[in-house]
Amino acid sequence: MSLTVGNNVSGVNAALSAGDANGDNIADISDLLLLTAAYNTQQGVNPNYNAAADFTSDGFADISDLLLLIGNYNTLGDAFPISGGNLTLSALRAY
After folding, report:
1. CA–CA separation, 95 and 90 (whole Å)
2. Which tens digit of pLDDT belongs to each residue from 41-57?
3. pTM for this one?
4. Does residue 20 belong to any structural domain of this protein?
5. What DSSP letter does each residue of 3-55 carry, written as one string?
6. Residue 23 dihedral angles phi and psi, to the nearest 5°
7. Which terminus of the chain is more solvent-facing, meaning fewer CB atoms within 10 Å of its CB: N or C?
8. How far is it, in rounded angstroms, from Cα 88 to Cα 77?
9. How many angstroms separate the CA atoms of 22 and 25, rounded?
């Protein structure tokens, strides 16, 4: 299957690994560093809070997020080819 960013698509399921803070479709050391920089912060309270590192979307970058990252460490999300690359969190955010 090939998709083009900008088109409406339905009926497609894709897994993007929890723990992928930088949107490159893999949970790895780069994501751990982003989470570490935001660790123990709260949305709207701490300036170092990073929503991309809040994998549970609960407004906190904490142990719950670290456990998700650890559980998916060095795993890839699904790769769906799109024009100019693969379907990644970055591509979806850009859309």
Report:
1. 9
2. 999 999 999 999 999 99
3. 0.70
4. no
5. B-TTS---S------TT-SSSSSBBSHHHHHHHHHHTTEETTT-TT--GGG-T
6. 75, 25
7. N
8. 8
9. 8
